[in-house]
Amino acid sequence: MGSAGIIIAIVVAIGSQAQPVLLKPEWGAVLSEEQAKVFWKPRLCNRPAPGPIQEIWIPDVATIRRLEAALGPALQEAIDESNIAPEKPHAGDFYRQYAGFVVGGKRIVYINGLHTTTINQEEARSLRWQRQAISPCDGGMMFFGAEYVVETGTVRNIVFNGGGRGQTR
Q: For the chain, how far is it from start to end, CA to CA, in angstroms?
């Protein structure tokens, strides 16, 4: 292979690597213990809830940073693989609510995802979504739930409203 062929191969290899999906940190909020209880039930309308939950804990900033680094690519892959809707959102277009639970003796962070089009301007300005858990029914790919396992640093059980499952990681 000549030098031109090697350069083309390198460019193709670099271009085919998955690009990181960056989430907006200001669109993520850790809910209070009281608000986390909204997700402490057997089922969240039309998607399964995490559990069985043994206790609630409050995730720290370092845990949320690791979670968001893992969530972006995992969520985008689940969106890309889903067949719920022909038009698919981008993983970076979701507000995220975080609630810490102990499930099966392991700390997880439950992620409640709300697409930007589902948060009206008044809610966004007032930051109500940062303080109050939102548990919508229906909405398809505009809402999702997922779990981040702190011990392994993995995202699992990505489920869109309406029952569409993403990949478990």
A: 39
